Structures are given as structure tokens and as C-alpha cells.
Amino acid sequence: MLSLSSVMDSPVLRSYFTYATIVILKMMLMSPLTSYFRLTRKVFANLEDTKLGSSSTDKKLVRTDPDVERVRRSHQNDLENIVPFVVIGLLYALTAPELSAALLHFRIFAGARIFHTVAYVCALPQPSRGLGFMLGLLVTFSMAYRVLSTVLLL
Amino acid sequence: MLSLSSVMDSPVLRSYFTYATIVILKMMLMSPLTSYFRLTRKVFANLEDTKLGSSSTDKKLVRTDPDVERVRRSHQNDLENIVPFVVIGLLYALTAPELSAALLHFRIFAGARIFHTVAYVCALPQPSRGLGFMLGLLVTFSMAYRVLSTVLLL
Amino acid sequence: MLSLSSVMDSPVLRSYFTYATIVILKMMLMSPLTSYFRLTRKVFANLEDTKLGSSSTDKKLVRTDPDVERVRRSHQNDLENIVPFVVIGLLYALTAPELSAALLHFRIFAGARIFHTVAYVCALPQPSRGLGFMLGLLVTFSMAYRVLSTVLLL
To answer: FRET pair for C41, CA 20 to 30 Å: which of A66, C7, C64, C121?
Structure first.
């Protein structure tokens, strides 16, 4: 069965576990980052949240802010790209690729997504963000191609 | 292989399967809940949907509504937190933790997320929703820590 | 362990791998589709992106557009439905269902979601999109029922 010993015996699975956890943690850190921007800029999505920054609720604080929306779009882009990577990556890791090839895929993806977040939140000039996005997409497509060419059964 | 018999032999995997399914179902129920609010409040996102509540399309019904947006934000927060839990939880369950520790993680997470949804949809005063959110985040971080400390291979 | 040979020996797992990859790829294609609409309609979410279509940044191009928002809602609906399918589908495939039953679930889901996207992006009259959505939801619920009735451990 897929037990601890079998995972520890497979370097590909171990590296998949490591990188999947890292990119998911990176994605989850967008939530506290959004909260940080909301609290420092006093911009809230719910009336009951406005009390967090002051002593009473305040309807004027329920509004949108360009910086908060920027972090939220970055978070949304993570959801749209990191979740497919994690799913396709597991199937890919189970097709027994070479360790060096697997590590190359995982490392490029992790680097591309971290760069994408920096480029998004700091609003670096294009096409820096676009390149990070495309690189992540290509890694996932490359893994999906190997999965489909290995196990295809329609 | 990871077959039915091997899953049934591992109480940790069985409890993971159970709680992962429960929280995913909870998340999926947000879709019908959104539809319910949309139909009862007559608030639609698409022009072609307005015909669902009446005999002809009506442009005025394509608008936003605070209650519908509240349910949608709750759904979005589920996506941002339940998906990471499901991914990290599978890797965690495969690191062969103690059954009692695994159940503690899974139960606290499921409870925290159900409480989070109730607090969000009913607009309970803060920090009730924030506590549900933080509790879920901490459970996932705790599982991620165990995964990384067990299988790390960069 | 869950190795390539054990996956290749199980037609249910092979068909799950195939359909999970297909629906995830379908979901990922919504990103380039959004970019295509943004570039052809000159509608951007970030100030730094407006330079992609012209020689200088232009604040007026940072706006929303009904067609772009339609594609984005379709993408969001995919996230809310395809991710649960992929998770529940893996657990379902591991409960050793009949191959014919598994293929029936996977094929209906993939067809329903592709139809849903076409109905959404082309704005087909309701209830075509609603039917595609409901069908996908029912397939996932049916698989979740089998998972819970097989391995339940609370």
C-alpha cells in the first residue's frame, strides 16, 4: 500500500510531497497577507469586520481598495494554477518519472509561482508577471502530457 | 498498491477519506445556497438567468446583493482553505501519524470550517468568524509541518 | 505501493487519471481564454497590464467588461466544481468500483462540464447551463455517497 515506507523509498514521491506542501503553504499565506492589507488600510468586506480596527462598526469602511484587490487577484490566480499543479503533479509523480526530470518540473514551478506573486503584489512592469504565469502553465501542461501519454484510458 | 483493502486496513486513511469527503460536500453545498439566495432575492449574474424567476429576461435583475455576495465570499474562503486541507491532509495521512492525532486534526478542522460558514452566513459578531478561520489555518499548518519534517527532499 | 505498475494494472485508476487530467486541463484553458478576451477587448485588471496592448500605460483600460466577467465566472464555477470532483473521484476510484460504473461517472462529469462551459461562454438560454451544472453536481454526490458508505470512520 501507499504507506510511509513506500513514500520514503521513492525520492520522486518525497520531492512531490515537499514541493506540493511548499506551494500550498505559499498560496495559504495570501490569506494573512490580505488580512494585513485590510487592517492597515482599514478596508473591509463585511460590516461586522469593521469593529476589528475600531470600537464600533462603521459602514464607510466597507469598500474596495486597489491594493487589497491586487492581493486578492494574486490569491485567485494561485488557486487557478497551484491546485491544478498539485493534482496533475501527484498523477505525474505516480507515472515514475526520472527524479532529475521531476525535480526540474517541481523546482521551476515553485520558483515561477513565487516570482509571480512578487511580481503581482509589487506591481512589477509586465511581462515579468506574465512570464511567471506562463512558466507555471507550461510545467503543468508538460506533466499532464506525460500522464496522458502513459495511462490514457478513455 | 493503494487498493480498497489497504485503505480499509488503515484507520488513518479511512478517517481522512471520511473527513475530506465531508468538508468537500460542505463546500459544494455553498453552490445551491447561492442559487437559493439568487432565486429568492431575484439577483442574477447573467442576463439569461433572469428568465428563471419570470417569463422574460429583465436587465434590472442583473445586479449584486449584499446577502448573495456574503454567501459567495464564504464559498471563496472555503475554496482557499478546504482545498489546501484536502491536499496537505492526504500527504499527512500518508506519513502514518497516530490515529488519535489524525482524528484530532480532522475533527477540529471540520468543526472550525462548519462554524466559520455559520458565522459568515449569519454575520455573527467578530471575532467568531476569525477564530474559525484561524483554527482551520493552524490545523493545516500543523499537518504541513509534519509532512515537511518527515519527507523533505528539495 | 502506488507505483506505475499498480496504476497500469487498475483500469479504474487509469480512467480516473485520464479524466481528472482532462477536466483539469479544460479548467486551465479558461486562463488563456480570459487573456484572449482581455487583449482583444482591451480590458485589464492591472494598470501595468495595459502596456501589453499599446506603447504606454492607460488608466482608462483598467475596467470591467461583461464578456470578460462571463469567462471569469465560468472559470470560478469550474474551480468550485472540478476541484471537488478530482478529490472525491480519487477517493472513489480507490474504493474499487466496477470499471463500467466508474467510466459512466467520469464520462458524464467530463461531458457535463464541457457543455457547461460552452453554455456559459456562449450565453445559451437557460436551463442548458443549469442542467450541465446539476449533472456534474449529481455525479460528484453519487461518488461521495459511495466513498462515505464504504470507508466511514468519524
So the answer is: A66
**Could you give the CA distance from residue C84 to residue C139 in angstroms, rounded to a whole number?**
11
DSSP state of A94: T
Q: Tell me if C4 sits within 8 A of A94, measured CB to CB.
A: yes
Q: List the end-to-end C-alpha distance of chain B, in Å, as a whole number.
A: 26
Here the ipTM equals: 0.81
- What residue type is assigned to position C129 of the chain? R
| Contact criterion met (CB < 8 Å) for A126 and C49 | yes
- Residue C32: cis peptide before it, omega within 30 degrees of 0: no
**DSSP secondary structure string for all residues of B43-96:** -BSSGGGGGGTSSS--GGGB---HHHHHHHHHHHHHHHHHHHHHHHHHHHHTT-
pTM of the model: 0.85
Count CB pairs under 8 A between chains A and C.
89
Report the interhelical angle of C128-151 vs C66-93 (nearest 10°).
Answer: 20
Please list every residue in chain C whose beta carbon sits closer than 8 Å to the beta carbon of residue A125. Answer: 48, 51
Do the Cβ atoms of C28 and A80 come within 8 Å?
yes
Ranges of residues in chain A whose predicted pLDDT is under 70? 1-6, 52-57
Q: Centre a 10 Å sphere on the Cβ of residue A41 and count the other Cβ atoms it contains.
A: 15
Torsion angles phi and psi, residue C43, rounded to 5: -130, 120
Q: Find out whether the peptide bond into B127 is cis, omega within 30 degrees of 0.
A: yes
Q: Which domains does chain B have, with CATH numbers?
A: 4-151 (1.20.120.550)
Q: What is the pLDDT of residues C53-98, one digit of tens each?
A: 666 667 777 778 888 888 888 999 999 999 999 999 998 988 888 8
Chain A contact partners (≥3 CB pairs within 8 A): B, C
Q: How far apart are CA B75 and CA C148, in angstroms?
A: 23
Pairwise CA distance, residues C109 & C107, whole Å: 5
Residues contacting residue C23 through CB under 8 Å, at least 6 positions apart = C82, C85, C86, C109, C110, C113
